[in-house]
Amino acid sequence: MNQTIERVAEAMQLVERAVVAGVQQGGRFLDLRERSIRALVDLGVRYVALGSLVPFFGRNHHIRFAGQVIRQARALTPPDVPIHLYGAGDPVELPFYVALGCDVFDSSAFVHFARDGWYMTPFGATKDPAHAAEFGCPCPYCREADSAIWNDARQLARHNLWTVVDVVRRLGELRRTGGLDDYLGEVLDRHTRWFPESQLATSWREVMDG
Q1: Which helix (H) or strand (E) holds 24?
Q2: Among residues 70, 77, 17, 25, which one has the least CA distance to residue 47?
Q3: Is domain 2-209 annotated with CATH 3.20.20.105?
Q4: What's the pTM?
Q5: Distance CA 189, CA 6 (A)
Q6: CA-CA distance, 162 to 65, in Å (whole number)?
Q7: Cα–Cα distance for residue pair 85/24, rounded to 1 Å
Q8: pLDDT digits (tens, 9 = 90+) for 38-93
């Protein structure tokens, strides 16, 4: 954490036209993450990126810690400074991160999911064709491949990426026009019905209650 802050401070003195990404470190320690964000803000960074969170992402969708980190960072970061969440790429989780204050995401999860046979939807990644049928994906790859997409990792990755981009686009519209809370409820309802063992709803309540 200290090394990152030192390097960001050095970069701020060198960069003239580019934007320095102030990367938050601190691992699993919220007090260190708070110190990290405060130091970056004091340095005057205009772009904050939340690092070291990938190990906390899991298929059971327990988002409490990631949510706590985002909420804390958003409270300490000026509202006009975007927050980038490294490694977040599951479309079912992105709406909750946006609701907490994230603006930018990056991930190669769409490829890794496809290699393991996971079909991404806005309500959770699935291997059940019945879920895919209920979702009714409008992407060109599903229309082209139909049921064969389940046996073609390349096409499945294309579908997954299309789904991620479409969810991000929709979230941008909801932030501008309102309705994000209703969308969160829709996602939670269907996700819980499809995946009753998931911890998404429980951990989301823990974030909001915290």
Answers
A1: strand 22-24
A2: 77
A3: yes
A4: 0.95
A5: 45
A6: 28
A7: 10
A8: 999 999 999 999 999 998 987 799 999 999 999 999 999 999 999 999 999 999 99
